[in-house]
Amino acid sequence: MQPARVSPSARSRLSRFHMAASSPSTGNLGSSSRNGRNSKSTQQLSMGGWLLVVLVGLLATTVPAVSGLPEGGAGGNYPVGRFPFLMPKVVPYKPELYLCTPVKVDYTKSYYIVGFEPNATMATAHHMLLYGCGEPGSESAVWNCGEMAGGSEESGSPCGSGAPSQIIYAWARDAPKLELPEGVGFKVGKDSPIQYIVLQVHYAHIDKFKDGTTYDDSGIFIHYTTKVLSKQAGVLLLGTGGYIAPQATEHMETVCDIREEKVIYPFAYRTHTHSLGRVVSGYRIRKDEAGDDHWTLLGKRDPLTPQMFYPVESRDPIRRNDRLAARCTMQSNRTRITKIGATNEDEMCNFYLMYYVENDEPLQMKYCFSNGPPLFHWTNRETELNHIPDYDASHL
């Protein structure tokens, strides 16, 4: 059984679309200015009856030249393109399905992603992630990239084993679009470790697809520019493993040390849990000469509100030897243990911190996870944390 219904004639071409594209039919590359004054239609290719949208220039292709994104720009009025990165008309066939689809970035140029415009609703997609990868996790156009994959279908991780992997954007619960601060962008292509972008969509419920005639094209319109930006964006994901006991309130916590000789400037955060989350909070911790920890709030949210990226509470720079910490306060009325896992019957505890570095590369550290409860808490002796804001971290 395949995770997406694709006609046999289209399947072979779709499985290679991230390596080479066919010649365009009609239309021009979408392009607009940074201040939104101009816009043009996007280019679409029809392959075997399935819609496949290809960006000329962003993709490494041999297509003829067409009018596209102008190079460079001045000040805050540099030109910005809009690339529709959507699922190619998939038909999810079982609940809790994770599907991935890739696009290869043109390796001859550097591109800077400056905004994300969701094309999805929470009635269809539980959440979506954009991964930046050195290699995709599969050679197929669409593959099962969750923990529910069976042995008879194409499956794999979002990014290839051993290849660079990082999350560059996350969406859930009808969050609106995100535009990065002026002059900030995620660098992809050319000498960046990000040579592929992979879209992952989690379909928690599939009732609307059961008749076999309804398809899905959830995804994200990526806003990008070719103007060289001095402020490179990055995302650090803090999360936990562990489990929540029945009929219990549990704190799922993590802490990590910044050991790289970099200065990062936080500007946005996002929280994510499933249904048991009540409050998710994130902090920067800086120890003074007396050994006292000073906790600076980065962000705190009810994770059941729209899971967008919100402005951080403090934009003070984060430096080497600072620490980052996150807590998810979970409340369970269930009569069973709830483990960290991929389905809506499981839980997740995630705090995303989006930041930029100036005239530097983002952190090599992309993920910071702890074992979670019952093995790990902020109060563990080995953390050497003090002045923990226990009440504030769990209350809005």
User: Helix/strand/pairing class, anyone?
Assistant: mainly beta
Number of helices: 1
Radius of gyration: 21 Å
Main pleated sheet: 11 strands, mixed
Strand content: 35-45%
Estimate percent helicity: under 10%
The average pLDDT is 80
Subcellular location: Secreted
Binding site for Cu(2+): 126-127, 202, 272, 274, 348
Disulfide bonds: 100-145, 133-159, 256-368, 328-349
GO cellular component, one term: extracellular region
What would you say about this model in short?
The protein has 396 residues and is mainly beta.
Q: What features would you describe in this structure?
A:
Cu(2+) binds at residues 126-127, 202, 272, 274, 348. Residues 22-42 have a biased composition (Low complexity). It comes from Anopheles atroparvus (European mosquito). It contains 1 helix and 24 strands. The chain is an all-beta fold and 396 residues long. The strands form 5 sheets. Strands 1, 4, 6, 10, 11, 13, 14, 17, 20, 23 and 24 form an 11-stranded mixed β-sheet that branches. Strands 8-5-12-7-9 form a 5-stranded antiparallel β-sheet, with no helix packed on it. A 4-stranded antiparallel β-sheet has the order 16-21-18-19, with no helix packed on it. Strand 18 (277-287) and strand 19 form a beta hairpin. The model is unreliable at 6-75 and 148-152 (pLDDT under 50).
